[in-house]
Design brief:
Radius of gyration: 17 Å
Shape: globular
Strand order of the largest sheet: 1-2-3-4-5-6-7-8
Strand content: 15-25%
Structural class: alpha/beta
Oligomer: single chain
Number of helices: 11
Order of helices and strands: EHEHHEHEHEHHEHEHEHH
Length: 228
């Protein structure tokens, strides 16, 4: 691994099959700190893909959002897989977040439970379409405070809100940041973005990077050059 920064990168394995995911993980071994398994891959391959990738390196990104009892059950099942980290939606409310945390801690007190604040595909206009008048930064700050009060380990937020989360929840609160794009890279459906170096300078704990690495002709080289 080139430097300590690369250890703070989760690569998003947003592919539809286990062979593709395992090939990427094998190619990127030693170049990144872990792997994000999201809805597409998990729905295609089921829980066994976590074991095949290596659960201690997995951030399970399923964004649980339901009544507290259901989310508690899901959290317990996710923790039993042995993952490093998983997430729930902050919009599920404080009771739901507490239920998720308590269930997870009963299984493994080392697993990190984090809350999703505002997706990086949203901007102020799309929030208004949903009847939310807050700017994304204000919404993220409010939801991060709820997550912190519920006892969660951290939140998912765009790099643009890291400083607001730090101001609200302190420097030990984990910030996992998608919406990271190398300078000049295509934004895709992301709207609130920064470069990898900018995100780390803002205080990101983890960076989540997908297409700039996984869609590159040479994913390992793209990972190596991420901070150049």
């Amino acid at each position: 691994m080139n430097n300590e920064n690369h250890k703070r990168v989760f690569v998003a394995l947003d592919v539809p099959s286990a062979p593709e995911a395992k090939a990427l993980a094998s190619t990127l071994a030693g170049h990144v700190g872990g792997y994000k398994i999201g809805l597409e891959l998990f729905c295609s391959e089921g829980p066994r893909i976590v074991e095949e990738i290596g659960p201690s390196e997995v951030f399970l990104d399923l964004k649980f959002h339901d009544i507290p009892n259901t989310v508690a059950a899901c959290s317990r099942a996710a923790t039993k897989l042995g993952v490093m980290m998983f997430n729930v939606h902050c919009l599920g409310g404080q009771a739901m977040m507490k239920a998720a945390l308590e269930a997870a801690r009963e299984e493994n007190d080392k697993v990190q439970v984090i809350g999703v604040t505002v997706l990086t595909s949203h901007d102020a206009a799309s929030l208004r379409d949903m009847g939310i008048e807050d700017f994304p930064r204000d919404m993220v700050r409010r939801l991060a405070r709820l997550a912190c009060e519920a006892g969660l380990d951290g939140v998912v937020c765009s790099p643009q809100e890291i400083s607001a989360v730090r101001a609200e929840c302190g420097n030990n609160f984990v910030t996992v940041t998608p919406g990271v794009r190398p300078a000049g890279g295509a934004l895709g459906d992301q709207k609130r973005v920064m470069t990898p170096n900018e995100a780390l300078q803002q205080g990101a704990t983890w960076l989540v990077v997908g297409r700039p690495i996984t869609h590159a002709k040479d994913p390992a080289l793209a990972a190596q050059n991420l901070f150049n």
